[in-house]
Design a protein that fits this description.
single chain; mainly alpha; de novo design (two linked rop proteins); about 80% helix
């Protein structure tokens, strides 16, 4: 009986590890780091521009949350859809960062650095999308 319990426990442990394999993806790690950085940079924005900070945070979070959601889907079209949404959210962040820079809510160097990071993330997401097309179902 103890042996069965240990075997079941090990199986559950393996399933848990496999369920969150996306955490090992470099693009996921970069997306979470980016969302965290944006949250830190925008937390002091108040008043009439709070809507801009909120939208930028939502777009950054969308990148980080749609990658694992897509990874958890079994059908290739579903995976592609969530990865495409993540890539679109990265593009959305670019325009939001530009508006924030123009309104002097984010300094030029931070905006440029964030855009560079987004370009890398977007390219990596495109690689995931293109990789789906190359794999057999």
């Amino acid at each position: 009986m103890l042996h069965e319990s240990t075997a079941l426990s090990r199986l559950l442990e393996i399933e848990l590890i496999m369920a969150f394999m996306f955490e090992k993806l470099e693009v996921y790690q970069k997306a979470v780091d980016f969302a965290d950085d944006i949250a830190s940079r925008t937390e002091r924005i108040t008043g009439s521009y709070r809507y801009l900070a909120d939208q930028l945070n939502r777009a950054a979070l969308s990148i980080a949350t749609n990658l694992p959601e897509g990874n958890g889907r079994f059908a290739k079209p579903d995976r592609r859809n969530f990865f495409t949404i993540a890539r679109g959210s990265a593009q959305e962040c670019v325009s939001l960062l530009e508006i924030a820079r123009r309104r002097n809510l984010i300094v030029e160097s931070a905006s440029s650095g964030s855009k560079f990071r987004l370009e890398i993330i977007a390219r990596m997401i495109s690689g995931l999308i293109n990789g789906l097309a190359e794999r057999d179902e």
